[in-house]
Amino acid sequence: MADEMVLRAQKFVNTTYANGATLGISKLVENGQTSWTVMYALTRALQYEMGITSLSDSFGPATLAKIAEKYGKLDDTTAPSANFCRILQSALYCKGYDGGDIDGKYNDRVKAAVTKLHQNMGVTAAYPGGSLWPKTTKALFNMDAYVTVGGGSESVRSIQQWLNGKYILRKDFYAIPCDGHHSRDVAKSMLFAIQYELGMADGVANGVFGPGTKSGLKGRTVAMGSTGVWVQLFPAGMVLNQRPVAFTSNFTAALAIATSDFQAFVELPTTGDGDFSTWASLLVSYGDQDRKGKACDGVTKITSARAQTLKSEGITYIGRYLTNPIPDDPDLPEKAIQSGELKTIADNGLRCFPIYQTFGRDASGFHYAAGRGAGQAAVNAALDHGFKRGTRIFFAVDFDALDHQVTQNVLPHFKGVRDALTDDGSRFEIGVYGPRNVCTRVGAAGYSTASFVSDMSSGFSGNFGYPLPADWAYDQIVTRTVGSGSGSINIDINIASGRDLGQGSFDAPRAPLPDVLYDGGFLNALHDDLSKYMRSIGFADDGGTGTDARLFTHTECFETIMSYDSQTTQLSNAYNMRKALIQTSAYWEMRHYDLIDQTVDHAVALYHLQGIGTKRDSSTGIAQLFGEMGIRAWNYCIGKGIVSGVVMDPSKDADIWEMWQKVNKDNAFSMRTVPLMHLWGAGGKPGGINPPAGETVLRSMRVDYTEREIFQVLRRYQGWGNQAEADATKRMAIYQIFEKYNAIMRQLAK
After folding, report:
1. 347 and 270 part of one domain
2. Rounded CA gap, 740 and 750, in Å?
3. Is the per-residue pLDDT at 548 higher than 80?
4. Is the pLDDT of residue 544 over 90?
5. For the chain, which end, N or C, has fewer CB atoms within 10 Å of the first or last residue's CB respectively?
6. HEC-encoded secondary structure of 458-498
7. What burial class does residue 670 get, using C-beta atoms within 10 Å of its C-beta: 0-12 exposed, 13-18 middle, 19+ buried?
8. How far is CA 143 from the centre of its chain?
């Protein structure tokens, strides 16, 4: 909603500072809405009026020092100019306070607004009256709220105000929001408060949970009967962790009971006292890192010697990865579960919980289609390793996902994971690995049943200021090397809650067998699974209508691809290639054939038959192959001795036309060419249209290709660039669906 006075503030900046040019910014949008853009503009304007030549969006130390140096405080006696005062008035309005008429006068209305601002911040005792001081001026020029907003807690707000009031005069303590919400800034302010009360001097206290803070807290246990500021800090930490206690300076029986409840929740000894371990769990996500955990996770194979080391450390539950997307990574050669490893784990009385992770290191890798592919890929891998029905697979979100990224990327991704596992018959449960906020929100959305919390990443915004999720199963707190000799192993120590027990026995692993003919009894199931997925990404079964209409229905595409099952099986075995690679590319391309493709095909025919136009080639036929690309794929495979045939010239019209007609009209030839395109792609597409640095050469084709290699082969079939990357991500789910049923066929044929 537009605010008239904010609009006036925007107009003031634009009019006074040459539409932002004087400040080094663009003209402000005059919409009457407060934003960081407006606050940055006002900050720059303030710096300009003070004579600072290097303007910045940041209200940093130089700006703060300049105010202190030139004015001491800001009011009607020190404001140097009318425009300077108008900037302050504009900032007040942007913060929701009455800044007067933006007339350049620091009058009684402005003083009253500043007094109210200080009251809301809790700093009236330090800064009485209507003058702005350097630190409260800094607080004025940001988007922090000093009133409860968005369902904020009054209890949290009272703590925020108390922290501001008590410590605002300390050198490195700046006003925190008083909006009723825990946050990174609030969490850091608590650490500053702890350090100040431990006696750390300004310049030493830094808001970091370091050795000095840990050492000091070990002598600050609070318990029944304790009083004073340390007791105030302890329930403050409890409130910020969403525990239902009063913010008090007396350690009451009620606080002791609540402390015991919290200790039980985070798996600490239930003493009811505020001891070091409890303080640590309240102040930082990883808590007391000297704790021993009953669980661990790691990237190293569990041998018998290492299993004995883990048992001696009190560890029962071991997290291991289902796949390794980079099999030849010299730094992580044993990241994925190794042959015979699960048997070793079981034989030693240990249990394993599986983790699925590929390249999810930023938000772009998380969306619905990727989740569908990840879900089915994890199922296929879990079955390959021998995990039994009912196992919970923890899907990783291993980056600092901001809250809006959780909404826009992570939640749709986990909806895709859930849909994939549901369509698979709900053989496996879904867990989530990630920061606290990610785990909490994924669980609240109904997409997971337990959390594996990456609390060791204490600096993640999704951990700072968020409580431990209610459904936590494993809490990752520290990396540690345990054991010696052949039993030495580097692991992440996890606290276990008992909500997940992993698995202590396993089915026999599925060997990487060659593909076999498809059993017709499973055709309807495969048909329906593909239909569900394609509909979920916007492809109607009937091909759709309007500008997005496709020429073939789902059933037509499916039946065409599967009618060549015998040939596809023979080719997959001949080339040591998974059938699913051939089926996926052909099905995806046929599903995309539309009127535009048909029109372009006609243009190619006119060029070669009648000399009309300039369109000499196009992607055509059920596999959408270019004549030139077909030639290059065949030439590559002929040169490698993979197939026999006549080498053609990809630059000659006659040869392009000959190949184009084959892939346009002969479906069997097209299906035969698809695996050759994949072999050419895996070989780096020599002689083709490559990206700037050229395509890398993959490992030779094999049935145990990793997901990274499968993705690369599928992407290279289409080409290079963002669209090819995005489409390959969508095709990964199709690959995993085909592979799901092909794996069933292989097991039935054993």
Report:
1. no
2. 16
3. no
4. no
5. N
6. CCCCCCCCCCCCCCEEEEEEEEEEECCHHHCEEEEEEEECC
7. buried
8. 25
